[in-house]
Design a protein that fits this description.
This protein is mainly alpha-helical and about 150 residues long. The protein has 3 helices and no strands.
């Protein structure tokens, strides 16, 4: 009887270990895939933010060679965010395979929050741009009626 039960118990234990290891590997790969996709999205959003800020600042510029207020600071902030994103991509490339799952999960959460915050700021920028365009259009109409 022991000759039959013991191999069955060992087989069940081995199967449980294999399933545990596979589940852990799948979770790790899913986190990595999410991080790369979110990093791509964040990079796209940052570049879009830079383009929209440039358009907004061009609307507010007093002259062709005169930057609008805050233009340089905004560009530096976006460029710094892109450099920080590059540093995180390098970490992913070099260290993520050895990272603990909780580190990867924290990174997924953090990049998701960053994208959400940037998305809200892009919406606010769109709203401000529309308000600026409306104000400029109304001013032009007012001046043309005089």
């Amino acid at each position: 009887m022991l000759a039959i039960v013991l191999p069955a118990v060992v087989a069940v234990i081995v199967c449980a270990i294999v399933v545990f290891l596979l589940a852990r590997q799948i979770r790790h790969q899913r986190a990595m895939r999410t991080l790369y996709l979110e990093a791509d999205g964040l990079e796209h959003d940052l570049k879009e933010c830079r383009n929209r800020l440039a358009r907004a600042h061009a609307s507010m510029s007093m002259g062709p060679n005169q930057p609008a207020a805050g233009e340089a600071e905004a560009r530096l902030a976006v460029d710094a965010a892109l450099r920080e994103l590059l540093a995180h991509r390098l970490w992913l490339r070099d260290e993520a395979d050895n990272a603990h799952q909780r580190e990867l999960d924290a990174a997924v959460t953090a990049i998701g929050k960053a994208r959400g915050a940037l998305g809200r700021q892009l919406q606010e920028l769109d709203s401000a741009q529309r308000a600026l365009e409306t104000a400029v259009r109304e001013k032009i109409e007012d001046l043309s009626q005089r």
